[in-house]
Amino acid sequence: MFDLTNKVIVITGGTGLLGPKHAEAVAEFGAIPVLWDLDAKKAEEMAARIAKEYGVDAVGAAVDITQEDQIEQAKEGLLQRFGKIDGLINNAANNPKVSAEGQVQGSTRLEQLGLEQWNQDMAVGITGAFLCVKHLGPTISQNPEGGSIINIASDLGLIAPDQRLYRKEGVPEEEQPVKPVTYSVVKTGLIGLTRYVATYWAEKRVRCNAICPGGVYAGQDENFVQKVTKLIPLGRMARQDEYKGLIVFLASEASSYMNGAVLSIDGGRSVW
């Protein structure tokens, strides 16, 4: 029921924090992961590693998902090579980095956020996801057995960010770093996209679901980690590989009757 043998699954943001883990997850069950990212060399190297490690075919390619023509060209290349596309994981998004001191880097306050930054975050997180669905969705719908589209939202698509996590002692209120508004808007928007797409090709067996991951531990400052874990019932941040099981479930026939679902996988943070 979890078998993904020879399923061609496109993963945007394929070389980021979680993109490679999504690729590993589907590869472990026989799929052909296709990693799209801006860095061609990194994507190709990641695909080669996964292909060798899991004994599957894998593809890495430079695709700017904010550029419609690049998505079209990449799609045509996949169809020429494999003759089909079975799944899409909309994983790419801009996410401000947290410094070694646990602070969000750059000017992120609502009052100071520039229109250029807003537009860029929307272009990657929302428009890019829309364009991938627009061009890959019809192809997936042509499969006799349909396919699966998975949107990677966030617990911050369900709840507001707790800005106390990013506060810095001795800094004036108007200069305090915050999680930017664009992150919440993008992740909430992906939930809306999920519900729309879930009904769009349903008669052709194309399912669309969203997952809402919580924070992933990636070497953040210990003080920041201690503050955020107090907000999580399980008392810790996620490991990078703890979303793999859900990805396989949603990509495979194991979830054949799950459509339009929004699944939180955040250690219980959004319950509190």
Structure in words:
Helices cover 38% and strands 14% of the residues. It has 272 residues and is α/β, with parallel strands linked by helices. It has one domain (8-260): Rossmann fold. Strands 3-2-1-4-5-6-7 form a seven-stranded parallel beta sheet, sandwiched between helices. The radius of gyration is 18 Å and the shape is globular. The two termini are 34 Å apart. The mean pLDDT is 95.
Short description:
With 272 residues, the chain is α/β, with parallel strands linked by helices. It has helices at residues 19-28, 40-54, 68-82, 115-141, 181-200, 222-229, 244-251; strands at 8-12, 32-37, 59-62, 87-90, 147-152, 206-213, 262-265. The protein has a 7-stranded parallel sheet with strand order 3-2-1-4-5-6-7, sandwiched between helices.
Give the helix level as a range of percent: 25-40%
Within CATH, the superfamily carries the name: NAD(P)-binding Rossmann-like Domain
CATH topology: Rossmann fold
Radius of gyration using CA atoms only: 18 Å
H/I helix tally = 7
Low-confidence stretches: none
Assembly state:
single chain
CATH architecture title: 3-Layer(aba) Sandwich
Span of the ends, CA to CA: 34 Å
Number of domains: 1
CATH class: Alpha Beta
Helix and strand succession? EHEHEHEHEHEHHE
The percentage of residues in β strands lies in 5-15%
The overall average pLDDT, rounded, is 95
Query: How does the helix and strand content classify structurally?
Result: alpha/beta
From the spread of the alpha carbons, the general shape counts as globular
For the sheet with most strands, the description reads: 7 strands, parallel
Number of strands: 7
Strand order of the largest sheet: 3-2-1-4-5-6-7
